[in-house]
TrEMBL record:
InterPro entries: HMG_CoA_Rdtase, HMG_CoA_Rdtase_bac-typ, HMG_CoA_Rdtase_cat_sf, HMG_CoA_Rdtase_CS, HMG_CoA_Rdtase_NAD(P)-bd_sf, HMG_CoA_Rdtase_sub-bd_dom_sf. Gene3D superfamilies: 1.10.8.660, 3-hydroxy-3-methylglutaryl-coenzyme A Reductase, Chain A, domain 2. NCBIfam families: HMG_CoA_R_NAD. GO terms for biological process: coenzyme A metabolic process. PROSITE patterns: HMG_COA_REDUCTASE_1, HMG_COA_REDUCTASE_2, HMG_COA_REDUCTASE_3, HMG_COA_REDUCTASE_4. This is Hydroxymethylglutaryl-CoA reductase (NADPH). The keyword Oxidoreductase applies. Keywords: Oxidoreductase. PANTHER family: 3-HYDROXY-3-METHYLGLUTARYL-COENZYME A REDUCTASE (PTHR10572). One of its GO terms (molecular function) is hydroxymethylglutaryl-CoA reductase (NADPH) activity. Belongs to the HMG-CoA reductase family. It comes from marine sediment metagenome.
């Protein structure tokens, strides 16, 4: 609708910074030079949150023998997880919720370390649609011996210097707790948490259903809202879940 235009990509290694300010400053400084070379006018001078040159990857292998629990056989759990992932891989409606579950884990660490969760979210979902079709960020399958194998790859533009990360005491405490020395290590931890969160959700979906875990958490919140504290919260929540009556009026009784 606006006619032909030229897009210039500036590839900038920002090391241990998230890099937004550095990249934006560089693009603004370079604009006059680009205009002098092209004879045109530079319009937008800003970074892209699709940081596909800054990918982080995590991989896990879970022995088949570790997957059995309760009434569920190991093969049943493994195959159910893979089937649930396959659904997300081909259906964008399922993929949206599948990836949201991954981001439940990712965002928690990003926020705790003072990084920009909105930028990470934007990059993740754009990366999930890079083929022209929105799909799963993770992949699940088996190795040669039948063990469950999961992989998560996504852009992870996070930093440990500059911005809130460097000045906010809670962010510093989180980085110290994890003994983070480089942004790349932080990125690896973040995607590992995302993959673990994805596994937990797929396991629940493939077996007992997601609501059991959700309702257990909800029951605790209802118990607290009803005035319970300490050990009573756990006992009251368990009773409401067992009765399948997670309601504030029942908790108050």
């Amino acid at each position: 609708p606006t006619g032909p235009f030229l897009v210039l990509h500036l590839i900038f290694d920002v090391r241990d910074a998230m890099g937004a300010n550095a990249v934006n400053t560089a693009t603004e400084r370079l604009a006059p030079l680009v205009e002098s070379i092209t004879g045109g006018r530079v319009h937008l001078r800003i970074l892209s949150n699709l940081a596909d040159r800054r990918l982080a990857r995590s991989r896990c292998t879970i022995p088949l023998s570790e997957l059995a629990f309760g009434e569920y056989r190991a093969e049943e759990v493994r195959d159910g997880i893979i089937a649930a992932w396959s659904f997300a891989a081909v259906d964008p409606y399922r993929a949206a919720t599948h990836n949201k579950g991954i981001m439940n884990g990712v965002d928690a660490v990003v926020i705790a370390t003072g990084n920009d969760w909105r930028a990470v979210e934007a990059g993740a979902h754009a990366y999930a649609a890079r083929s022209g079709r929105y799909t799963s960020l993770s992949t699940w399958g088996t190795d040669d011996t039948g063990n469950l194998v999961g992989v998560l790859e996504m852009p992870m533009a996070v930093g440990i210097v500059g911005g809130a990360t460097k000045v906010h005491p809670a962010a510093q405490a989180a980085l110290n707790l994890m003994d983070i020395k480089t942004a790349s290590v932080l990125a690896e931890i973040i995607v590992s948490v995302g993959l673990a969160q994805n596994l937990a959700a797929l396991r629940a979906l493939a077996t007992e259903g997601i609501q059991r875990g959700h309702m257990s958490l909800h029951a605790r919140q209802v118990a607290i809202a009803a005035g319970a504290d300490g050990e009573m919260v756990t006992r009251l929540a368990a009773q409401m879940v067992q009765e399948n009556m997670v309601r504030i009026d029942r908790a108050e009784q």
